[in-house]
Design brief:
2 copies of one chain form a homodimer.
Chain A: H1 17-36, E1 40-41, E2 47-49, H2 50-53, H3 59-64, E3 67-70, E4 73-77, H4 82-92, E5 100-109, E6 121-130, H5 138-154, E7 159-165, H6 166-175, H7 182-189, H8 192-195, H9 197-206, H10 211-221, H11 227-234, H12 242-260, E8 268-270, E9 281-290, E10 301-305, E11 319-325, H13 326-335, E12 350-354, H14 359-371, E13 376-378, H15 385-394, E14 399-403, H16 405-410, E15 412-417, E16 423-427, H17 428-442
Parallel strand pairs in A: 1-5, 7-8, 12-13, 12-14
Antiparallel strand pairs in A: 2-4, 3-4, 5-6, 6-11, 7-9, 9-10, 10-11, 14-15, 15-16
């Protein structure tokens, strides 16, 4: 037979079983936390009408999209989960109840140039809260508290959620008399961390900004420190521009509520350089960085927008949301040794090894064990005992249960702890209780440990 | 702004939030059961090299496939989960441990003619056990016991897993001296349920089969009844054909082990008409039907195969597996009123309604509640009290917690049971304990109830 070389497309993640278990555990944690805040699961198609997905038009994104025809239908694979959400809310508006909270963890597709740590098929994990006509500012404060609980629950501690407010920024640019250049200015100040203050000054100069305005803007973005300090420093601009004042009020409300949510100061701060693109966000914006790896950039970003679905409907649907690039985050966490491989319980709690003539008894015992909630695999194959033990070892199965004639006569099973080598013979019911206890002790560990830097 | 009409491709399922919750609950049950038998989760890309996916070549399937080029790469969307499994096992063979057990619940794509209850994007839920060179027959008995536990756990009782053995069938055709027409004969007898015995006889005649052979074959497939009865009846063909004898031995072993697994006779039986295509399966084959809706056909099918990945590798990788067409099954269960909508707990356990001035206290209470594992939503919006209660009602949230000045003074919360209308004021910690108990009582219900027919 002519053989085809088995291979996977470059940029398309495919994990080995043990890694996949870890990835599933991360996804399960995200789901669990999102659901604690009342978000509904959503699952939209991977394929949509190209016209619908590209309603917004799309420059860079459009070039990367997987788009093709089947019959006379022009199709595209989704490149994010926001556009499908907009379509969904516009389409099912009469059947939805607002505020509508949804999470979606799903694959998206971007035909980017393949490179290390960049993916063409990757999971995004999004949450959004959509209002009908209006959406209270406090939703903007809840979002960072969800990010906080998510990462805490995963086991990540050394991260910082940084927020800013787009009205504050835009109002400030108006104050400088440079509202027309807001886009360019945001793009430049966004780079502060990467290129430093003097390079930012230079670029602002090239933009044709007056030296006084540059000076004022640099003073503004250099305003750093604790939340209370920044909010205090911003007072001096107050009363000069309405949009700025609204932004400052929003930022203050959000910062106070975030504290009420119990997010500690070390995991949260105002950062006046955060802008997050131009045309979409209208209020609070978020970025999240790993304290020990700022070079990675934001691992969880989003913000408030006033009009989710303007391309599909004339209803005003304001919202706020964040997105985690999950495949990339998982790749980074692995590469930087954040994943605690001992934290994810083995896929099997106990491997049953029936000796000659004990098969039907083993089958019946396995059913009893599963009824008790245990995850059980019977080794059916004709292999040497040693090979079966090696299999348990390689799969990191914590217990092996041996069942032979003697054990059956005693209605007991030989239970071997694979980590310690200890072995004991326990009656069926006691063995089950013992294993249940062991399983319980092994679960609930956090997946991530901040590595010692 | 010019608006695009929001719409979803025909044949692409998209559920409303309440239905999506049900679908998630079904998927979670499948995962839980599969993991109880030691299956690892697997997640392969939706897109693959067309050459890899179509290695087997493929008639009908090839016409339905979503295939396109990007740059100079010929791509295809997966049309099942078996071919990606074959690729995966061939590609990662050195890093896998055999027997390798994996489940995959994922979307697949087939551009079929769109019609009611048929989908172009749909979930399949597959489990397979792959051996390296050999795989014990008992794995073939375990598979139906997994199907049984899966449906039982979902709450489905009135179903029957029907099994047959391909060696038995092929051996019998050899006995009839009609081995060359095995394919056509299988295709015809597969239709017995639909077209009846006399139509089967007619079609077999048109095939040119001798009347004596037709008579013998019809006697064979008419052999129905309890497992022991059928196995007894099959004894009379024994000793005449080696392949038949092997098949009969396998069928007997599998049937006995299935009983040892605790699958009751009413949910399981031998059906000699089941053939399941020609070129792939080599041992036990399975189909599963709803007793009250046989017209739907099989809802869970599969079988034993001797060579999973022959198109990619010269290693012999025998296996056994089954697949559930999950999107279609969910559609049918809904249509036939099998889904018990009261079984899936509300997405939110408690809706917190803070009165004027109580917002920060409500936020702090919500954090306490989530720390206790509750799913909590705060209603932040500026709406009338009545509108907020109506929101809780429409989302079927079982409890509303009201927090105002008086409650805060007493460090208590007004808890309203939305089903009974009962209201009581409880101190924070007591309210949390009360809600935890209520949540526990509402969970663990089975999703499916067999409708009264």
């Amino acid at each position: 037979m002519e053989r085809i070389k088995p291979r996977t497309l470059s940029g398309f993640a495919e994990l080995l079983p043990e890694q996949q278990l870890q990835f599933q555990a991360v996804m399960a944690t995200l789901e669990q936390v999102y659901r604690q805040y009342g978000f509904y699961p959503l699952d939209t198609p991977v394929l949509e009408y190209a016209e619908v997905l590209l309603a917004k038009g799309g420059g860079e994104t459009e070039k990367q999209i997987y788009r093709f025809s089947k019959g006379d239908t022009d199709l595209a694979m989704r490149f994010d989960l926001t556009v499908p959400l907009a379509k969904y809310v516009a389409l099912y508006y009469p059947q939805l109840h607002f505020p509508f909270r949804r999470y979606q963890i799903g694959k998206v597709y971007r035909g980017e140039r393949a490179q290390r740590g960049r993916f063409r098929e990757f999971y995004q994990a999004d949450i959004d809260i959509i209002g009908d006509g209006a959406l209270d500012i406090l939703n903007e404060a809840e979002i960072p508290s969800i990010i906080y609980r998510t990462f805490q629950t995963l086991g990540l501690n050394r991260f910082k959620i940084r927020i800013n407010n787009r009205k504050l920024l835009s109002g400030f640019f108006q104050l400088l008399g440079a509202a027309g250049q807001a886009g360019d200015m945001m793009r430049i100040i966004d780079k502060l961390d990467k290129i430093g203050l003097s390079a930012v000054q230079k670029e602002l100069g090239e933009l044709g900004l007056a030296p006084a305005a540059i000076h004022e803007l640099c003073a503004f973005i250099s305003c750093k420190g604790e939340t209370a300090v920044i909010l205090q420093a911003l007072q001096r601009y107050r009363g000069k521009n309405e949009l700025f004042d609204t932004g400052l009020q929003e930022l203050t409300t959000v910062a106070e509520a975030i504290a009420a949510f119990g997010v500690p100061e070390e995991n949260f701060g105002i950062d006046l350089t955060i802008a997050r693109g131009l045309d979409y966000y209208t209020g609070t914006v978020y970025e999240t960085t790993l304290l020990d790896h700022p070079e990675i950039g934001s691992i969880c970003s989003g913000g408030r927008y006033d009009n989710l679905a303007g391309y599909y409907t004339d209803r005003q649907l304001p919202g706020v949301g964040i997105s985690i690039g999950l495949t990339r985050l998982f790749y980074i966490l692995n590469e930087k040794n954040y994943i605690d491989s001992s934290s994810v319980p083995s896929n099997v709690d106990v491997l049953l090894l029936p000796m000659e003539g004990a098969m039907h008894e083993a089958i019946s015992l396995s059913t009893q064990m599963r009824d008790a909630g245990l995850r059980v695999q019977i080794h059916y194959e004709k292999k040497k005992f040693k090979a079966k033990m090696a299999y348990a070892d390689r799969l990191q199965i914590p217990y092996v249960a041996i069942l032979g004639e003697d054990e059956i006569a005693a209605q007991a099973v030989g239970l071997k702890n694979m980590a310690t080598g200890e072995q004991q013979t326990l009656p069926y019911l006691q063995a089950i209780a013992y294993l249940q206890k062991a399983v319980k002790a092994a679960t609930g560990k956090k997946i991530i440990s901040d590595p010692i830097s």
